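User: Show me sequence and structure for the first protein, then do the same for the second.

Assistant: Starting with the first protein.
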Amino acid sequence: MNLSVIKSAVLAAMPFMLLFVAGIVDAIGFIHLKNGLFVSFMSGNTTHVAMLLSSHQYHQSLPYIGVILLFVTGITVGEMIAVLQRKNYRWLVMSAVSILLCSAIFIEQITIPMATNFVLAFAMGLQNIALRITINKAMPLTFATAFLANTGRELAMLLLGQGDKKVFIKQISLWLSIFIGAIVGSELMVVSLSYALVVPIILCICIAGLLFWLKELTNDD
């Protein structure tokens, strides 16, 4: 098979791999604290913050606010890396995500559980930048609602005889990547956090390696 064909196939599969990782880590973070705090699904955290603040539970809202801020900080850092290292930022970002996930294992051993989730949230924010490997404009990796909305739209077009079955399958597959990832993350947490994080760490290292291999094909957004 032609090398360019293989590279194109890997490129096309990249968003599904990244969404799968995001689903795994989100489930790990949620189960780790057992309090409904997500590390990549910021819509849920935003709703929780709003409800807690409206009922004057200011202290309880702080972890959610912290996770949201760190998630945004991760995206900010990722964008800065993208601007400063335009030709290399994709594999550099995923290498950084791998290191952060590894550090979460050690942080869990020496400090409070919330600190681990803060690291995971920062890592998931940073990872959002890597999805630019497949599209011209940045798209949040963890916005599952968008993929469901697109799935519904494409289904409507198909029912009207105007849709594209391939587009419909792609949209629902993107959502399923998060969904299946969350299932895997939940199963892994049956053992321990350290054990569970090994899988996304290995996946992120592999993705970083693939992005390094593909960098000459993806130098331009």
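Switching to the second protein now.
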Amino acid sequence: MTRPRTARLLALAGCALPLLAAAHTGGAATHDHGTLSSLAAGFTHPFTGLDHLAAMVALGVWSAMTSRRVWLAPVAFASALLVGALLGLAGLALPAVEPMIATSLLVLGLLVATGRQLPATAGAALAAVFALFHGVAHGTELAGPGAAAAVTGMVAATALLHGAGIGLGLALRGTNRWLPRLAGAGVAVFGLALLA
């Protein structure tokens, strides 16, 4: 299979993921099974909420397709995600967490679909604001014994998902423009559905 064809198939598969997604389940991901178990639970947590999965991949795709500093917005997101998770573990409640998570999907999807470029610092700041809400939601869900290991696993998985998005974005950069537009539109529709 040729490289462009593989990239197209991956992009189409990415479009279908948001349609299968459900918002946060609210189930605690940590149990008193030790540090490695908590680390694994935290690592798998972003993959069980496809809203998080779609946002992370979309951010990576958008960064790769529109920015020379492809790492800046993902690093800002992962850093603010950690801060938000720690705040969630401490019991902080932000207003409208779930609507903001849905809004992040809508906005990131639209950014991918339109190929809209933002100044690097503005893109990083936008990513950080959205990440704070994602972090608080996940920090609340991961609270319990082994929470520190679970949050470490979650941030590592987030970085991996950003990397996958960046790889996909770089692969799509030189291909037909309709593939990222379709993927971005799928993420945006998913965000809109969560807002409804």
